Amino acid sequence: MAGCAGNPVPREHGAAMTPDEIETTWLGQWAAQSAAPSDGLSGFALVSSGQDAFSLRVLLSEQADKRLDIQTYLMGDGLTTRVLLARLLDAAERGVNVRLLLDDVGAVGQGRRLAALDSHPSVEVRVYNPLSLGRGHLTTRVLASIPQAGRQHRRMHNKLWLADGAVALVGGRNLGDEYYSASEPRNFSDLDMMTIGPVVEPLARSFSLYWNHGLAQPIGRYHRAEEGAWRELRASLGEWFGDNGDDDYFTGLRDRYADAEQGPLVGRLHWGEGVALWDPPGKLAWPGRPALARTMAGELLAEVGDPRERLVVISAYFVPGKAGTQYLRALADGGVEVAVFTNSLEATDVPLVHGAYQVHRGGLLQSGIQLHELRAEQEPGSEGEISVGGSASALHIKALGIDNDRVFVGSANADPRSVWWNTEVGVLAHSESLAAELQGLVDLGKNPTLSYRVDRTESGQRYWQTEIGGESVRLMGEPGGVWRHLGAALSRWLRLEPLL
Prior knowledge:
By secondary structure, the chain is an alpha+beta fold. It has 2 domains: 2-262, Endonuclease, Chain A (2-Layer Sandwich), CATH 3.30.870; 275-499, Endonuclease Chain A (Endonuclease, Chain A). The chain has helices at 2-5, 19-23, 26-35, 50-63, 79-93, 111-118, 138-145, 149-152, 200-211, 229-244, 248-256, 296-304, 321-333, 351-366, 416-421, 432-445, 482-493, and strands spanning 42-47, 67-72, 97-103, 123-128, 160-163, 167-171, 186-189, 192-196, 216-218, 270-278, 310-315, 337-343, 370-374, 392-395, 398-402, 406-410, 425-430, 451-456, 462-468, 471-475. β19 (462-468) and β20 form a beta hairpin. It starts with a helix and ends in a 7-residue tail after the last helix. Pfam families: PLDc_2. One of its GO terms (molecular function) is phosphatidyltransferase activity.
């Protein structure tokens, strides 16, 4: 009732950028020149390094001339977020139109800061699927959502960056230090795909559909800020950076990019056809479980068809369910090489989800499907961007490798929540060289210093093969503490799989 009592808030929808407008921007010209030899194809680059992912977002914020559109599920408060917010305000001061669309759960406890950001004339902040009560703390937010649990357990999980309608980023990264290798003690191993060319336009259209949907509400409806509050926010961010600019993370970034011969942050651009896919923005308000054909997952399955030779599934949270397990087993039994890369119990940040995966693990192994689980602690000296070195880590990548010519990168995990309840976005790219690069990351992640290979003995007993201290080790029990095992068991006892 409180949420409905306020006066209607004027909604400025914002027109899409025209091709002529895009071509006048620096990024638009760079994208056009880069794509000129490709004969109308889209360009793709995988960004696996957390440092590169952060620096690329800073670069896009600094190079944008007209518009920055950012869609995210969560926004933390740390080194990287504060720098990015400062860059967004700098861009707004240059006349760039900045639009930030944040799932309402990600806005919990941050109303004052978001309202201050929104007070800038060139910045708009909206929250998706909001509640007017309990906004100060996650506990009160969850309690307030109980009367609307049928809709409030569904979230906008999309992650999308768009700069001047010319460059787009899709993938698993939210806004927070753990996504950019800046957190202690734990970071996420994650993956973005940068795109230019024809595939960017439909991604921009997806943002507009969400931005203009009735579930997207201006932050000013729930949190008020004084006129010009952005000035105080910008000053405080500048003062903070003045005190923390010599932090080890920023010093490491300067050293990382000090060599001018290193080349562009995104590395090689791969060229091919691209298909942008997203869930309908009204999915969160649909009654019951939607038909598969109405979801992004259903669209992706229809677009991909059945793999002929190989399928690689990389998912932070892997809950295939009965139907998914049958599908993967049928592929493997038909001669398709199927591999799954996910978190181990000791590495996952949600043991409840891992419990639902455990139920199907035996059947997958029975059909010869390869299972690899990321370790929580990598061996010192382990190299590669699918890990975060020797610190504690967890997998957060959401990607598919299909045969030797297609790659999907997006925000969706291989679980019921991403299929049925949340909204997601991603890009399917047709490119053999891109597929080879993704397979290289997968092969790196399979290194026994980074992950466990789950398998069975001839008698059917499960084991976890890895390498510790330079020696091959076979663990006959699943790695993970008592509380993690209890958390995993709880999801099985309560039969939570359809909601995970």
